[in-house]
Each structure stands twice: as structure tokens, then as C-alpha cells.
Amino acid sequence: MFDSKVVRRRRATLAVFVGLSVIMVTAYFGESGSGVFHTLQRGAQEALAPLETGVGRAGKPFRDLFGWFGDTLDAKSENDRLKGEVEVLRKRLAEADTATRDARQLRGLVKLSRQDGFPQGTEPVAARVIARSPTVWYSTVKIDKGSGDGVKEDQPVIAAGGLAGKVTRVTGGTSEITLITDASSAVSAQVMPNGANGIVKPEVGKPEDLLLDFIQKGRRVTKGTTVVTSGFTSSKVESRFPRGVPIGRVSRVDLDEVELYQRVHVEPFADLRRIDYVQVLTSKGRPDEQQAGVLAP
Q1: Residue 37 — very low, low, confident or very high, per pLDDT cuts 50/70/90?
Q2: Where does the pLDDT of residue 142 fall: very low under 50, low under 70, confident under 90, or very high at 90 and above?
Q3: How many domains does the structure of the chain reveal?
Q4: pTM of whole model > 0.85?
Q5: Which of 66, 91, 114 is the endpoint of a domain?
Q6: Which domain holds residue 69?
Q7: Quick one: 41 and 176 in the same domain?
Q8: What is d(CA 74, CA 83) in angstroms, rounded to the nearest whole number?
């Protein structure tokens, strides 16, 4: 227990200090700016100014450190939020790009089938590409339609723009398409409008370039003309692609007076490296009129 005298003494001391404080505050606010208490205040400020400056400088690194931690946490939180927004926007952009690309290819297929001269008597089956050849030749693709959808081997396949290839393997729900850029491909073709005939084959080492070979002299082919399937059968290739399917446009003609044939370079209309949708021209009517072209053994 505390001694009662000590307690009374402390209370008296506190009362004295409170009373002096009230008197000093009253005197401070009641005197002029040049009074005693104002003078004492200025003197104390001047005397303690160096100490205050030193303490402020000494504490500045700690304040900066705490401020840095706070700013870092805020920045990290903001960065995480912005990353989330970027991911959402990137996903939406990818979806929009994919939708635009799909729509463009589907429109291309519809436009191709409505062109004048496009072969009639077929029932196009639209299909999506679900796998591609792992090689740089882009020789085959797999689609999500099979025998259950009326797809059969050797049926021609088109993509947006023109001929893509033919069906070479069929299961119940999928099919494998060998593209016209495959090394084994050969398609009898015709140059429009002059009617020069030849065989379209891939350029070795250049899957994006096709060659129209075996065009006889006297049937001069010019750059910019269109090449379509001819539906003819020659000694070089047995080809029964429906007549009139666009293949590509002549990009260059190599003339050699010694050779019997011209070498005509053809740029395919279909972008075979980036196809996502195709149409299989399934049979309608007499099957022997709708078979795809194959190499003769």
C-alpha cells in the first residue's frame, strides 16, 4: 500500500504544476509577441533547432525504409491487379482473333462454292482441322469428320480459296487429308483461259510453291493467270478431281528453249499452312465422276 503522506504530497505537486501551467498559458496568450514567454519560446526553439535537425536526419533513412516497404506492397498489389487485367484482355483478344479467323475461312469456303464454274453435283461436308503434320512440309492434316459423315477415301478437299488435297485415310469420326503440298501429290490441271494443260506438283523444299509441269511448247502461260483442276487423265497421273476447282495463280514462268515443257510456278489460293476449316466434296450422283486424283502406281 502507498503511504498516505506520499500520495497527498504527489497530489499537491500535481496541483501546483497544473496551476502553474494554467497561469503560464493564460499569461502567454495574454501578453504581446515581445513578452517574456514568447521570448523564452523563441530561445528554446533556437537552442533545440540543431538537435531537431539532427534527429530528423538520423530518422530519415528509417522513414524512407518504411515508406519504401509501403510503396512496394502497394506497387505489388497494383501489379498483380494489372497482370490479372492483362490476362483477361489477352484471352479476349485471342478469342476475338480466333473468331475472326474462323469466320474469314468459313466465308471463304462459302464464296468458293458459289463461284462460277465450281463443280456441281457434290455435297460439301464442313470439317474442322484437329491435327497437323509435325513436319515442315505440312503434308497432312486430320479433320473431325469421318465415314459416319459420308467421308470416303480419295474424295477431294477444299479450303478457303481453293483446292487443299484429298482424303487418304478414314475412320468412323476422323479423316486424314493429304495436302497438295505433299511430295506424293499430283493433280491434273488447266490454265485459264487459254486451256493449257499440265500437272501440278509441289516444289521440292518449298511447300508453299507449286509447279505446273508438262505444258507443251506453243501453249504459252503468262504470270497472273488462274490454274484450276482439269478432271483429265494423263499418262503421268490418274486425276478425277472435279473439273473447275481453283488451285492457284501463276506466279512465275521458267522458259527453257531446250526443254520440251515449261516450268510454271503456282502460288496456291488456299493458305495450307494455316487452314482451320475445310470442306470435303462428298459424292453425289455417280461415284465414278466424283473421285479425287491419285498418283498412278
Answers
A1: low
A2: very high
A3: 2
A4: no
A5: 114
A6: 31-114
A7: no
A8: 14
What residue type is 220 in one-letter code? Answer: R
Residues 149, 104 share a domain: no
Confidence of residue 161 (pLDDT cuts 50, 70, 90): confident
Question: Would residue 235 count as lying in a domain?
Answer: yes
pLDDT of residue 117: 73
Close Cβ partners of 176 (under 8 Å, ≥ 6 residues apart) = 140, 141, 142, 167, 168, 169, 170
Say yes or no: 78 and 107 in one domain: yes
Domain boundary among 114, 148, 177: 114
In a domain, 44, yes or no: yes
Q: Is residue 208 part of a domain?
A: yes
Residue 4 covered by a domain: no
Domain holding 171: CATH number? 2.40.10.340
Please tell me the predicted confidence (pLDDT) of residue 285.
45
